[in-house]
Every structure is written in structure tokens, then in C-alpha cells.
Amino acid sequence: MLTGTLVAFLHFAAAFGIAIALACEWSALSESPTYEVARRIQWCDLWYGISAVFLVIAGVLRVIYYDKGVDYYLSNPFFIAKMVLGAAIGTLSIYPTIRFTKWSKETKRGLPPVVTRSQFLAISRIVRIELLLLLLMAFCASLMARGIGL
After folding, report:
1. pLDDT tens column, 9-29
2. Helices 35-65 and 2-28 meet at what angle, rounded to 10?
3. 70 burial level (CB within 10 Å; 0-12, 13-18, 19+)
């Protein structure tokens, strides 16, 4: 019982970690970030990735070993929608992560990264979409947890 509760807590904490990381990235994004801002965004993206790994691990453990059982989840359309939204968020995060990683050439030398207008617009749009999809994912989780759709 306690283990299942701890896994559920880890799952929720990881989801909040992702939300916080995305919100921090969004608020810090700039067409011409300073070195400090660029490093903050890189740390946020690292936090995002770590949180995503814990979210997936805890989620898989919850589905297989805890809570309502595999059949409950796989038969619920809101669980499937939640997984599709999660996959979309993960896929969308690839481009910003690549861009933030490429900033390392400059930031390792203490310099701010060079960000083109198109890169800035793409990254900011993607992060906003990710935040929206994350909100929809939480809504699906609420519906799913209450058995709606079964």
C-alpha cells in the first residue's frame, strides 16, 4: 500500500516537474538570451527530461503493479488519449532540446547563444503547445481516474 502511494506521488511530482520546467522555459525564452538566461533554460530542459523519465517509469509501474490494473487503463479511452498526448508532448520537445543542447558550444565558453528569429518563434510556439497539451493530459487523467469513458 505504501509503495503504491509513493509511486503515485512520484508520478504526480514528475508531472509537476514537467509543468514547472516548461513554464520556466517559456518565461525565460528570448530572441537574444544572455549567457545566464541560456544556462537557466538548459537547466530547465534537463529538469524536464529527468522529470519525463520519472513520469514514464512511475506511470508504467502504476499501470502494471498498482492502482486499478492494466485492463482498466487499456479499456479507458481517456487513458489512450492521455498516452497520445504524452507522446505528442515528447515528440514536440525534441526540437527545443536539440536547440538548447547546441547552445552548449557557446555557453561552455561563457557566451550567450545565437538564436535566429525563426528558432525563437518555433521554440516559443512549441513550448506553448506543450503546456496546452499537458493541461489536456491532466484533464484526461482526471476523467480516466473517475472511470468516465468506460
Report:
1. 999 999 999 999 999 999 999
2. 150
3. exposed
Task: Kindly report the pTM of this predicted structure.
Answer: 0.90
CA distances for 26 relative to 19, 20, 59, angstroms: 11, 10, 26
Neighbours of 146 (CB within 10 A): 10
Q: Give the Cα separation of 103 and 110 in Å (integer).
A: 11
- Rounded to whole angstroms, how far apart are CA atoms 51 and 11? 9
For 113, phi then psi, to 5°, come to -75, 160
CA atoms of 27 and 17, how far apart (whole Å): 15
Distance CA 119, CA 121 (A): 5
Q: What distance, in Å, lies between the first and last C-alpha atoms of the chain?
A: 25
Question: CA–CA separation, 57 vs 23, rounded Å?
Answer: 23
